Amino acid sequence: VQSKHLPAQPPAMAEELPVSSVGGRGINPGAWVKRAAAAPDEEEIPEDWGWPADAFSLEELLQHVRQATGPPAPHDQVDPHAFERGQWYKVPDAGETCHVYVHNFTKDITAEQPKNFLDLTDADRKKLGVFVKELPDVLRRIHDSKRRIPLVYGSEAVCDVLRNFAVYSAGWQLLDTSKLKRLNPKVLEESRQAIVAAMKHGKMLCVYLGDHICDFADKVCVSKNRDTFPVALFQHGGLTADSVKERLYRPEDKESGQCVVRNGFAVHLLVAYDGGLELSSARQSELQQIPGLDDMEEVRCHCEEDRLRLVREKAGAA
């Protein structure tokens, strides 16, 4: 599948994240994303350097920069080991007038680009796509303005974040279609309940496709299942048609006899990469089993773990 309609990159990419976006209305992946594992050939940091055991998070570093009172340090006042190990982030300064570089172990702040700072190219940024924290706003714009269903691609780490967010966020609802691999009345009814719950409460329905995409076109969205898993799920606005709602809603779902759909209801699909930050040819072939695929808007999404992995790959190739 070719990414024909990728949205413009938002400003909040991980290596150049605006201070104002941290702690905002978007997804906070900090509680769910594991710290990226060290590369197998990465040397341990000597204890006599006095560095902490773990690197500071991006949020902690941004807070540190925001609270800084003095000017950025010249390189001769920075821990010299910071030019050998660790990671530098390029972030807005405290006044958000220019950028500075902050080290993820020493918290040193400098205005001059360090020699071991690895910047990402435009091609890298395109490969990573939208930062996960900014995804909800991107999904809403695609749904409301472009009137398309977003098809989100992400690593397993991103999928973990979004599945958890869909479970615990008041504004999202999870529909895990990986359970449909064993098609039976129970899983179909659970799917119907998730769809109706999102519609009734005006939620964003996250349709997770799992590590094996079902044959929705020929096996799931068939005539006998239209009361539980209609093909209209894969059509923008398809579920709000009266004929579809009447089949989906049960008497206990209705309010004063009406099939209510509250404002805010929207649908997006979530697919996991199966080859680094790419889809294998087999996974791309599986995508063809999704009805209405050509009318969807493709969105690549990444988390901090993905960015760090890409930076390490670039460092290893340098």
UniProtKB/TrEMBL annotation:
Write down the superkingdom of origin: Eukaryota
Residue numbers spanned by region Disordered: 1-25
Protein name (Swiss-Prot/TrEMBL): Uncharacterized protein
